[in-house]
Structures are given as C-alpha cells and as structure tokens.
Amino acid sequence: MADTRDALVDVRSGDRWLVAVAHPDDESFGCGSAIAYAAVHGAQVTLACATRGEAGEPVPGSADGVDLGVVREGELHRAATRLGIARVELLGYRDSGFDGAPPTGSLCATPLDEVAGVLTDLLREVDPEVVLVLDGSDGHRDHVLIRAAARQAVAAHRRADGRPLLVEHCLPNGLLRRWLAEMQAVRPDTAYHALDPATLGRDDADITDVLDTSAVLDRREAAIAEHRSQVSPFDGLSPELRRAFLTADHLARVELGVHTG
C-alpha cells in the first residue's frame, strides 16, 4: 500500500531526510530545530554541506594560527552530533564570500547544473522522504545557489508519488519585523534603522507549515554553541524573541513537476 501520510509532520522511525546547506553553521543557525525534530522522531538525517566556510569572519581568538575551514568543519561535525544528524557529507566547494568575483573552486564559481548533479546523485543514494534547504531570503549568494540546486535536483528526481517533498526553511517577514524593531531600540546608532521592513525575509503568506520545536530547544542551543568561531545571530536578543526564533520553524513546501524520464 502506498504511504499517503504527511512525511513532514508525521515523522517516523526509519524515515530519511536530506538537508542541503551552504556553510557550516547554516544547519544550526538556520534549520537546526527542524533537523532535531526529525531526528528525535526517528528519521535518519543526512546533511550535505557545500563548503567549509573558509570566507567567514571568525570570532577574535577562535581560529588564531589555524585554517578557518578546518575549525569550522570540526564545529560542523560536533553540532551535527548535537542535532542527531546521522551522516555529514562535505561537497568540497570553497566558500564564495559575500561579494566580489567568486574564487576559483567556490560554490558560486561552479555551474548550477554541476551542483544540482551532485545533489541528484546524493538524492538517488539516500532516497529521502523530505529534502530541507534554506530559502536564501537573506540574500547570501551561496544560500541562493544551493537552494536553486536543490530545486533542480528534486525536480529531476521526484517520483510519481510526490517523493521527495522539498521544504524550504524561512524567516517570515512578521518575525523579522519584530527583530528589526528590537534592534532599532537597543542599537539606534547602527545601520539597522536604515533597513526597509517590507524587504525582510519571506512573505508570511508563503509559509505552509510552522513546526512546534520547543521540545528540542536544548538540542538546538547545544548545536549553536558548538559554532564558537562564529557570532550567533541570536546573541543579544530578548529572551522572548530568541525563543520565538528557536522554538518554531517556519517552512514552505515547494511544488515542483514530476520527473518522468
């Protein structure tokens, strides 16, 4: 009999999830609660991380005299353990950085079809019920590219039964408006006052699911803490707003055509 359950919310032991991110810490700062939610319900989670985050700006003293990529790779594996991720696959691209010409060998210097092909091969191997990716609405070019590659890979691999389900992790505009108001109040002399609230994050109307992940907050916090070389985006938030970010994951299901080849 065909499995007609909703694999996103009705996660069961033996399910498989594939999570595709661009950098170490995306899995914890971004979609960590959804990952932990799946893992505690018995899913085998595979994390594909495109780069080692070499272009990041480390916290002073956290990577002195050591290759930042090595530091961040170690943080990634420790955070993955905290979240319950079963397998980590590093895809081997270099971090593209925020701007300028993408370095040779970086994610954004690589043709989209090539990156999508790597993810397609992994999809065939893992055969997941759910594929999870960040929606790229923060504008980082590596996030945008890995999202596009995931969409292309799932479109090429999706079966007639709709599997795998592609889900994008989002930061809804309504929540980011709360964040902006708080930042403007506590740091009035910074650039936050110049941000346009209307351009922040994902339109709330795009959100299809909100997972209550309060039960895995301890796992999420522990994973975030492993990324010692990076400044957490949740540092300095009021307890109420921090909890709003970390105990509910906002997701958007992506409708794609069925591959028949």
Automatic annotation (TrEMBL):
Keywords: Hydrolase, Zinc. Signal peptide: none annotated. The keyword Hydrolase applies. It is an enzyme of class 3 (hydrolase). GO terms for molecular function: hydrolase activity. Pfam families: PIG-L (PF02585). Its EC number is 3.5.1.-. It comes from the Bacteria. The keyword Transmembrane does not apply. This is PIG-L family deacetylase. It comes from Blastococcus brunescens.
